[in-house]
């Protein structure tokens, strides 16, 4: 896939990061020394000592905010204090999972963000557990993604199609806007025994599209949109300003309805879009590069958790011809 576009460097970087073809910036350590890096952790019960192991020693962390939601002690807290002495533990009601936590943090800090002063500062949004940690990009690559394009997802897209095993398809971060937004919904969700479904569904929102409209998200017009699964990502602070302040207030209110709730799955599928550059150029550039190489779009079954996911032909070499 040729990512050489007649576009701004920022747009080229958005395309390259979405397709995961961007390399590590040779000056990433020096670049990160010029900005503040904060970590936000949504905590319930898991150990958090995987986080300093992942961050390593090359990058300075300004502060860590832990939102504890299940009434449990934060095990591994002392390891986080090796990254920074500025570690705060804040108790929140056990509602909305990590999505409520992240929206709450952004709502609380929205007014403190100014594009020209601290807009390039970075916030890492993490959960206490480290499922699929082996698939996370190295920290220097993750920070290269976010410093150039504004947003980065820790978990790569997963391919559940049998033709992926035959090296025909490869999963993409991009999803069909039509099939993702029009009617995505889940009847229930229970990954662990503590997850109850009594309050999962709501009559208030019939689909992801309905919820998106009620929240008031500002999104560019495009055929595809990015999705970052599993609730682990990082963004520049100025990306918070892509959405009006009331959007974050609406999200917090919506995600406060229950612990295990449909709205959390809606939010999971929207984070990458609402925290990515929302200009038309970037969105359409991704479509331009991706569209000739689409092999399949997941369309069937309304309850498919990966509904709308775009699969690319794997035999197309993915390269970045030009340094953004």
Task: Describe the protein in words.
With 324 residues, this protein is of the alpha/beta class. Helix content is 31%, strand content 16%. Helix 1 packs across helix 13, helix 5 runs antiparallel to helix 10 and helix 8 packs across helix 9. It starts with 8 loop residues before the first helix and ends in an 11-residue tail after the last strand. The C terminus is likely disordered.
Key structural traits:
four-stranded antiparallel beta sheet, six-stranded mixed beta sheet, 324 residues, 10 strands, alpha/beta
Itemize the secondary structure elements and their pairings:
Layout: H1 9-18, H2 28-32, E1 37-43, H3 50-55, E2 63-68, H4 77-80, E3 87-91, H5 97-109, E4 122-127, H6 139-149, E5 151-153, H7 162-165, E6 169-176, H8 177-183, H9 208-215, E7 224-226, E8 233-236, H10 245-254, H11 262-268, H12 271-274, H13 280-290, E9 294-297, E10 309-313
Parallel strand pairs: 1-2, 1-4, 2-3
Antiparallel strand pairs: 4-8, 5-8, 6-7, 6-10, 9-10
Helix pairs in contact: 1-6, 1-13, 5-10, 8-9
Give a quick precis of the structure.
With 324 residues, this protein is of the alpha/beta class. Helix content is 31%, strand content 16%. The chain has helices at residues 9-18, 28-32, 50-55, 77-80, 97-109, 139-149, 162-165, 177-183, 208-215, 245-254, 262-268, 271-274, 280-290; strands at residues 37-43, 63-68, 87-91, 122-127, 151-153, 169-176, 224-226, 233-236, 294-297, 309-313.
């Amino acid at each position: 896939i040729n990512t050489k576009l007649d576009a701004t460097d920022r747009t080229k970087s958005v395309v390259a990061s979405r397709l995961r073809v961007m390399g590590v910036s040779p000056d990433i350590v020096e670049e990160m020394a010029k900005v503040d890096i904060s970590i936000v952790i949504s905590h319930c019960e898991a150990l958090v000592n995987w986080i300093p192991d992942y961050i390593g020693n090359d990058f300075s962390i300004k502060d860590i905010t832990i939102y504890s939601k299940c009434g449990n002690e934060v095990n591994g807290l002392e390891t986080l204090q090796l990254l920074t002495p500025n570690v705060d533990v804040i108790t929140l009601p056990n509602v909305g999972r990590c999505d409520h936590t992240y929206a709450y943090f952004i709502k609380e800090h929205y007014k403190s963000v100014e594009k020209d002063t601290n807009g390039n500062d970075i916030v890492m949004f993490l959960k206490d557990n480290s499922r699929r940690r082996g698939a996370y990009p190295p920290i220097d690559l993750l920070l290269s993604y976010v410093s150039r394009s504004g947003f980065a997802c820790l978990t790569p897209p997963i391919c559940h199609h049998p033709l992926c095993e035959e090296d025909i398809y490869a999963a993409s971060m991009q999803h069909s806007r039509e099939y993702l937004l029009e009617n995505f919904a889940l009847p229930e969700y229970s990954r662990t025994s503590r997850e109850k479904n009594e309050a999962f569904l709501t009559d208030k929102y019939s689909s992801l599209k309905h919820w998106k409209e009620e929240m008031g998200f500002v999104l560019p017009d495009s055929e595809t949109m990015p999705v970052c699964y599993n609730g682990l990502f990082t963004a520049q602070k100025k990306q918070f300003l892509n959405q009006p302040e009331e959007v974050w207030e609406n999200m917090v209110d919506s995600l406060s309805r229950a612990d295990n709730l449909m709205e959390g799955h809606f939010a999971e599928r929207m984070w990458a879009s609402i925290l990515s550059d929302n200009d038309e150029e970037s969105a359409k550039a991704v479509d331009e590069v991706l569209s000739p190489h689409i092999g399949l779009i997941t369309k069937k079954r309304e309850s498919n958790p990966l509904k709308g996911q775009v699969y690319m032909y794997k035999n197309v070499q993915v390269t970045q011809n030009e340094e953004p």
